[in-house]
């Protein structure tokens, strides 16, 4: 006979979103059941954010050695021990894993069930030998790598963004299908560590960012030796003696080349299969579970958050959604999920960061849109570091309300935080005119952008006339 549990809340999926909901609810003394069929920590800890940023950190050190001569320091080509690099990645994961562990959540009072979950009714979930009849459910099952319909792919050895972390040998030549953020990040990392890298993209690389921002990052990858071919289509792949052969169509011609390893980084698909969603009356499609602005599904007892709803597939988006669900499910407070205020960062070097509306979307929604652009060459800190590539671009209404911000350059991901708050709070750019940034920091260009916005008014006839009147008063 199956064990029956009747908690206040059942969370399906122990990734960043699900863990955040479970921890918060348990903190309020609410009975919570957390169901996870795979590894605790989800994609972020095991195959996504954590290992990729650890790898990027190692690659950045290799590049610093390679380019040290710019600063008068004799260095040269670094000696990369790839096995040790991957050991570093796994050490980072191991140091973070206790925060997401079953032991920690059990200690918080959460009942953790390690099994697959499926709805067997509108208000009942089966997980292994347990039935869970909760007051509310939260689906946070994440996503998996999407595999494009390429001839021969299923019969050809290939890596995905989930499986690449099992490598212990540096690829001689890594071919990457997909020029999105993950594809470009890994392309630069492996190139810096010593692999030859070819990126194949069907559309514009880094298409999620404005073209002028993407161009700065892509130019940097090109200078470092990453070959980016776009637009191309991959017609077929096949196993060969030394790795894989990739057949490509480009500009009306077809050619083939060989690589030692093939990585498919063509996006991700929401994990909706096997959940019994139809049994629970939850509308869904291959693009994800349908939710309203309050993150409720078509079954009012059930919420869904994170990658499984499609859209912004970011750890921080799932975390923000988790907070909204806790407010709604536990406290009956109204919530409204606004994807426009979620920042996004591509962690290439230089980084590309964005929040809010880009210039084209802003102009489609507002009249009199203004755009202020300040290059990093205006930053003394950037000059001192010999790293002036990129710029800050602020999109505002005619009166200065900040609609969106794009930054491409070193530490763009760190700098976007203040602008994300400004967009969420509907702040005016005049707030940054009063910013006192430490000198010398890259943050100073935020104030420069605000000054540039108001400069035409400050040098206008009215202001000059006021000054003359005041001068006449002594």
UniProtKB/TrEMBL annotation:
Q: How is the cofactor bound?
A: Binds 1 FAD per subunit.
Q: Which residues form a coiled coil?
A: none
Tell me the ranges covered by the Pyridine nucleotide-disulphide oxidoreductase dimerisation domain, including all copies: 342-449
What pairs make up the disulfide bonds?
Answer: 44-49
The record ties this protein, via InterPro entries, to: FAD/NAD-bd_sf (IPR036188), FAD/NAD-binding_dom (IPR023753), FAD/NAD-linked_Rdtase_dimer_sf (IPR016156), Pyr_nuc-diS_OxRdtase (IPR001100), Pyr_nucl-diS_OxRdtase_dimer (IPR004099), Pyr_OxRdtase_I_AS (IPR012999)
Cofactor dependency: FAD
Would you identify the family this protein belongs to, as annotated?
Belongs to the class-I pyridine nucleotide-disulfide oxidoreductase family.
Keywords in UniProt for this one? Answer: Disulfide bond, FAD, Flavoprotein, NAD, NADP, Nucleotide-binding, Oxidoreductase, Redox-active center
The protein's name is Mercuric reductase
Record flagged with keyword Nucleotide-binding: yes
The entry's FAD-binding residues are 53, 141-143, 307, 313-316
Residues annotated as binding NAD(+) are 178-185, 201, 267
Gene Ontology molecular function, alphabetical: flavin adenine dinucleotide binding; NAD(P)H dehydrogenase (quinone) activity; oxidoreductase activity, acting on a sulfur group of donors, NAD(P) as acceptor
């Amino acid at each position: 006979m199956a064990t029956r549990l009747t908690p206040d809340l059942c969370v399906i999926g122990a990734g960043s979103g699900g863990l955040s909901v479970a921890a918060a609810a348990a903190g309020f003394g609410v009975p919570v059941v957390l169901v996870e069929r795979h590894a605790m920590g989800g994609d972020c800890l095991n195959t996504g954010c954590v290992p990729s940023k650890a790898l990027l950190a190692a690659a950045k050190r290799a590049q610093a050695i390679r380019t040290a001569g710019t600063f008068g320091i004799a260095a040269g080509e670094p000696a990369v021990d790839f096995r040790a690099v991957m050991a570093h990645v796994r050490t980072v994961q191991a140091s973070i894993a206790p925060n997401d562990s079953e032991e920690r959540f059990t200690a918080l009072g959460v009942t953790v069930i390690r099994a697959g979950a499926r709805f067997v009714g509108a208000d009942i979930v089966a997980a292994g030998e347990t039935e869970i009849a909760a007051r509310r459910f939260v689906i946070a099952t994440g996503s998996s790598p999407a595999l494009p319909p390429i001839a021969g792919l299923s019969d050809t050895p290939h890596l995905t963004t989930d499986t690449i972390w099992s490598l212990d040998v540096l690829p001689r030549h890594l071919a990457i299908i997909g020029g999105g953020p993950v594809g470009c990040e890994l392309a630069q990392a492996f190139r810096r560590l010593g692999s030859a890298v070819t990126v194949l993209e069907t559309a514009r690389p880094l298409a999620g960012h404005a073209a002028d921002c993407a161009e700065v990052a892509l130019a940097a990858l090109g200078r470092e030796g990453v070959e980016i071919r776009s637009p191309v289509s991959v017609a077929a792949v096949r196993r060969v003696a030394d790795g894989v052969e990739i057949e490509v169509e480009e500009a009306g011609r077809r050619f083939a080349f060989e690589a030692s390893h093939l990585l498919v980084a063509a996006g991700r698909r929401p994990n909706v299969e096997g959940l019994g969603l139809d049994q629970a009356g939850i509308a869904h499609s291959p693009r994800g579970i349908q939710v309203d602005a309050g993150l409720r599904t078509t079954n009012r007892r059930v919420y869904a958050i994170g990658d499984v709803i499609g859209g912004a597939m970011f750890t921080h988006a799932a975390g923000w959604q988790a907070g909204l669900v806790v407010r709604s499910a536990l406290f009956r407070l109204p919530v409204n999920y606004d994807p426009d205020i979620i920042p996004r960062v591509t962690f290439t070097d230089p980084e590309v960061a964005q929040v809010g509306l880009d210039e084209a979307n802003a102009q489609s929604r507002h009249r009199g849109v203004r755009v202020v652009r300040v290059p990093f060459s205006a930053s003394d800190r950037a000059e001192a570091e010999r790293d002036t590539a990129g710029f800050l671009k602020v999109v505002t209404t005619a009166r200065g309300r900040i609609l969106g911000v794009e930054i491409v350059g070193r530490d763009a991901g760190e700098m976007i935080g203040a602008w994300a708050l400004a967009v969420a709070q509907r702040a005016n750019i005049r707030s940054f005119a009063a910013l006192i940034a430490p000198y010398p920091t890259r943050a100073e260009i935020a104030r420069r952008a605000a000054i540039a916005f108001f400069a035409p008014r400050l040098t206008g006839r009215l202001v000059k006339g006021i000054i003359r009147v005041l001068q006449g008063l002594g």
